[in-house]
Amino acid sequence: MSVKAFKLVSAVEREMLMGDKNYINIECIECCGKNLYIGTNDCFIYHFLLDEKTSTAGKITFTVTKQLHKYLGLKKPVSELKAASALTRLLVLCDNTITLVNMMNLEPVPTGARIKGAVTFTLNENPVSGDPFCVEVCIISVKRRTIQMFMVFEDRVQIVKEVFTPEQPCAVAVDGYYLCLALTTQYIILNYNTGVSQDLFPYCSDEKRPIVKRIGRQEFLLAGPGGLGMFATVDGISQRAPVHWSENVIGAALCFPYVVALDDEFITVHSMLDQQQKQTLPFKEGHILQDFEGKVIVATNKGVYILVPLPLEKQIQDLLASHRVEEALVLAKGARRNIPKEKFQV
């Protein structure tokens, strides 16, 4: 039985991005506070401001205002964007090079600092350096079976560590010193400080797209065999039961207490509290699903949408109204830290 946990709201319509230019496709997105950035296949970055409004009836809408767009000067797609708000920098991956640009005017930093030879990259959200004016970046290098760790400052970059992996890595997430890696045939946890690694479970990256996502301190979510969404800690154990996805999941996101997954035709919502599938939203041609500070965003090649969570109190009331008392109790207890105290008492 379903719960209405999320509502799908359009944020950026295709006209705002491409007008009548049909060849333009969305390659990547990044959202930081109200700033939404979109990277396209024709080497442009677009910057929008997202304003969320709630009507008196509780209906949520987004007004999106385009700030500016910038051509990066290459005939290559912008493949990844990550914001480092403490530095007011946007890290842009294009043609295997990560460039630092100003978050507001999209101009490259004057020093020309960049990281070359990156296939893909991620930021360490649980950094080890303790320097607030630096972000830690982990890249999968163009060099075979190599991961590199960098410290990125406002206008310079510095390599910290180079780690070799037993097989070619194709996806990575970082927490502190721990790397959770999808290799060619398996997932592993690797401590890049000590070099100690631990096998998690087998996985064939030739058949399916691996998913490796940090979901909290020392915990990751992975696309496992048999269409399972598996949880793993840095110790290589699972403290939660897996969720049952479809076989061809493209992306996953977390919006506590839900795990959201995207495949060719649907967005599915599973509860982390009882592993049950709670909601299915038809969504065709989606190729990006990511969460940004609790905001879940999905995109097709031509448009960007936001999955707006319904208030947990409303979800609990709806469950009670349909006599699903047990589920309502599980949700109320599990989501206690996300519900204001006086409402939880009621």
How many DSSP H or I helices?
4
Mean pLDDT: 89
Integer-rounded radius of gyration = 20 Å
- Overall form: globular
Termini separation comes to 25 Å
Q: Could you tell me the strand content as a percent range? A: over 45%
Global structural class? mainly beta
Largest sheet entry:
4 strands, antiparallel
Number of strands: 28
In the sheet with the most strands, the strands line up as 1-28-27-26
Given as residue ranges, the uncertain stretches (5+ residues, pLDDT < 50) are none
Helix share, percent: under 10%
> Oligomeric form of this entry?
single chain
Protein name: TGFA1 protein
Pfam family, one: CNH
Domain CNH: 23-296
Keywords: Cytoplasm, Protein transport, Transport
Question: Can you tell me about this structure?
Answer:
The protein is mostly beta strands and 346 residues long. It has a domain at 312-341. It has helices spanning 14-18, 312-321, 325-334, 341-345; strands spanning 6-12, 26-32, 35-40, 44-54, 60-71, 78-84, 89-94, 97-102, 114-116, 118-123, 135-141, 146-152, 157-164, 171-175, 178-182, 186-191, 197-202, 212-216, 219-223, 228-233, 243-244, 251-255, 258-262, 266-271, 277-282, 288-292, 295-299, 304-309. A 4-stranded antiparallel β-sheet has the order 1-28-27-26. It has a 4-stranded antiparallel β-sheet with strand order 2-3-4-5, with no helix packed on it. It has a 4-stranded antiparallel β-sheet with strand order 6-7-8-9, with no helix packed on it. Strand 12 (146-152) and strand 13 (157-164) form a beta hairpin. The longest helix has 10 residues, at 312-321. The relative contact order is 0.12. The model has no long low-confidence stretch (mean pLDDT 89).
